Amino acid sequence: MTYRHPLDCIFSPSSVAIIGASTRKGTIGRETLHNMISAEFNGKVFPVNPKASVIHSIKAYSTVLDVPDAVDLAIIIVPKENVLEVTRQCGQKGVKGLVVISAGFSEVGKEGKAREQAVLAVVREYGMRMIGPNGFGVLNTNPSINLNATFGKTFPEVGKVGFITQSGALGEAILNQAKELGIGFSVVASIGNKADISSNDILDYFRDDPHTDIILMYLENFGNPRRFTAIAREVSRRKPIVAVKSGRTHLGAKAASSHTGSLAGADVGVDALFEQTGIMRVDTVEELFDVAAALSMQPVPKGNRVVVVSNAGGPGILATDALINHGMQMPPLSAETVKGFRKFTSSEASFSNPMDMVAGAAGPHFRKALELLRKDEQYDTIIPIFVPPVTHDQLDVADNMLKALDGTKKTILACFMGAGEGSVGARLLKSHNIPVYIFPEAIAKTVSTIYGYRQWLNKPEGKFRKFKVDTNRVHQIIERTLGEKDGAIVGDDAIEILQAYGIPAAPYHFAASQREAVAIANDIGYPVVMKVNTPQILHKTELGAVLVDLRSDKEVRDGWKELESRVRKTRSKQKFTVALQQMIQGEVETVIGMVTDPAFGPLLMFGLGGIYVEIMKDVAFRINPLTDMAAREMIKSLRSYPLLTGFRGSAPVDMDRIEDTLLRVSQLVSDFDCFAEIDINPFIVSAQKDRCKAVDARFIVKKYQGRY
User: Least C-beta-crowded within 10 Å: which of 8, 85, 313, 356?
Assistant: First the structure.
């Protein structure tokens, strides 16, 4: 059989062998076979069990080699000790795809890992593809396939949602909840240990799958984050991706040598990856399905303007607080809309946004209100909230809502507060593609999440820029560092690396005596900064090893004595020298950095800098390499961004210079993979291009982190 995609042998097979099918009810082998039959799989099914001749009224075979027909897919449900031999038999038979449900592999430790690698070697030897081990199985609801190779009790409704889960234990609960919410699936894949097929492969499969429009993911870790980034960025442009990512990258657990390293906490790599690829990240499985319901039933809102209409004031206020806190806008009702409302609502109603029609409002009131709001062009999303009183018929309210909103292109997310998911009114709305939520806060989080996706879609993709740089100069400095004891590149060498990549930096001038320091200060011009020239001191301000704004020869001489006195207390035998730099005044201090995440590779950082960087922690991270758009977004994402655009009469800084510097650092990191951490702090930014300069920098080479 010819397949559209290499994974069609798993998701669209013509024949399936259930190896480990059982006659005993309640076992995984028996339930998986039963599910295949109950789903009316549109292909051949071959039970395999050496101890039974017939299972579930179907002829059984001792081994897969005894099956007389070709087998596309084998579902393996045998003891862990037998999986290797069964896998080899599948290879000999010419089976193309495997789903290994059996557990006892890398999830249980070193011995299990070795067992898994042995199975994987056979899979590769015979050119097969494998999902698992330690999974829940796979299913495909396409009526021409009807594949249910899982051991759960629920076969979902046909839909356009593809689901990837790394947790088999969540499989049954997820399918049950989706059915309750009215969400239909196209394909579900429980990938388990991801020994062969990972989320990357299935994302690639979903990209061109005509039956999948939305992708949901539950992930615990990334196999190859860099490949994931490339695939997800492309797929997100075609189909929305929503993900729950559990587990944490404990990057902060090691002793960091830089500000950047100490700020790169548990989850910044995941956040950066999702931000750059357009993936909508949610915190819980419940939120995952909240967003899935909205995406599968309603259009993504064109903007962030929301109107709320309810028959109770409290829920409307709750919705408003949540919407505003999530960055949505709630424009007031237009005069024309208010005029229309006054014709049919009580005088006690609130003619604002949120619109409270009070408790007496029934189905006809909601219909007239929604007819007015659907015509009001200043809203992108309408949220009707109904709190069912005893006197009103929920079904009538839902029916009137449907009549009022029929054919609208606005996004509609309804709340039947306190009615429960089994409400007849809620069921009617869901059956007509209007998702219903129990609480308004869930709607606020959902609409904010999907609007964020709209913003990402509307952004230009950005370009990777390439600069003419002096790589030989940087190579020489790195080689010289590797030949020495200390793996940190600081001082003049650090500044030289920046200059080699076209990054403006205030040069160092070194003095070994008071007289030399005064002469240098006069040469570069007052005011000056004087620092102890000791690379081992990482944070000089903490030890009082930096003096700023020295404005005369006397201040330089006094400063020399003061610094020498401080250093002698801890380093009495070390030769004392200082470094002097031009003092750049009245500007904004920022920080630019990089830290290597063990999973995601280099993470670039930009934020508010100087001595407050670790206190304020107003920084943004992105995965390297950066596009020009990504660099711009890093700058704009800071809470302190107004300081850069001009605040209370100050002139806006040169944004182009910041963006250019970030892109040059990105190229430096791409050109040299030997850096574990980089700190450029402070990087002074100003309205004047020639006053935007790095003042200090530090590079940590990987060799001295035990990884070079």
Answer: 85
Q: What is the pLDDT of residues 547-579, one digit of tens each?
A: 988 999 999 999 999 998 888 776 666 788 898
604 pLDDT exceeds 90? yes
| Residue 599: strand, helix, or coil | coil
Q: How many domains does the chain have?
A: 4
Residue 660 DSSP SS3: helix
Residues 514, 516, 522, 524, CA torsion sign: negative
The length of the chain in residues reads: 708
Q: Using omega within 30 degrees of 0 as the cis cutoff, is the peptide bond preceding 354 cis? A: yes
Token pair listed for 131: 């999902």
Nearest to 11 by CA among 188, 192, 166: 188
Indicate whether 240 belongs to any domain: no
The three-state DSSP-derived secondary structure of 298-324 is CCCCCCCEEEEEECCHHHHHHHHHHHH
Please name which of 644, 514, 524 lies closest in space to residue 583, comparing C-alpha atoms: 524
HSE (CB half, 13 Å, CA atoms) of 406?
8
- Residue 59 forms beta bridges with which residues? 54
* Residue 210: count of CB within 10 angstroms of its CB: 9
Side chain identity at residue 159, one-letter code: G
Token output for 300: 């993504």
Q: Which residues constitute the domain of residue 410?
A: 299-458
636-653 average pLDDT score: 85
Own/partner contacts of 648-657, CB < 8 Å, gap of 24 or more, are 651/687, 652/687, 653/587, 653/588, 653/685, 653/686, 653/687, 653/692, 654/685, 654/686, 654/687, 654/688, 654/689, 654/692, 656/689, 657/504, 657/685, 657/689, 657/692
Q: Is the pLDDT assigned to residue 256 strictly greater than 50?
A: no
Where do we find the tokens 């040299």?
672
Residues 490 and 432 in one domain: no
Per-residue model confidence (pLDDT) at position 158: 94
Cα dihedral 484/490/491/497 (nearest 10): 100
Q: How confident is the model at residue 161 (pLDDT cuts 50, 70, 90)?
A: very high
The single-letter DSSP state of residue 133 is S
- Inter-residue contact 218 to 166 (CB < 8 Å): yes
Number of Cβ atoms within 10 Å of the Cβ of 573: 5
Residues 6+ apart with CB under 8 A from 502: 467, 468, 469, 664
d(CA 211, CA 147): 14
Cα separation, 662 vs 628, whole angstroms: 9
CATH number of the domain that 417 lies in?
Answer: 3.40.50.261
Cα 358 to Cα 585: distance, rounded to the nearest angstrom = 60
Give the pLDDT confidence of 430-460 residue by residue, as tens digits: 999 999 999 999 999 999 999 999 999 998 8
Structure tokens at 250: 């404990």
> pLDDT (tens digit, 9 = 90+) per residue, 80-92?
999 999 999 999 9
26 and 70 co-located in one domain:
yes
The candidate with the shortest Cα–Cα distance to 701, out of 548, 485, 502, 501, is 485
CATH code of the domain containing 31? 3.40.50.720
Mean pLDDT of the chain: 89
Task: Check residues 165 and 2 and name the one with the higher pLDDT.
Answer: 165
540 pLDDT above the threshold of 70: no
At which of 420, 435, 458 does a domain end? 458
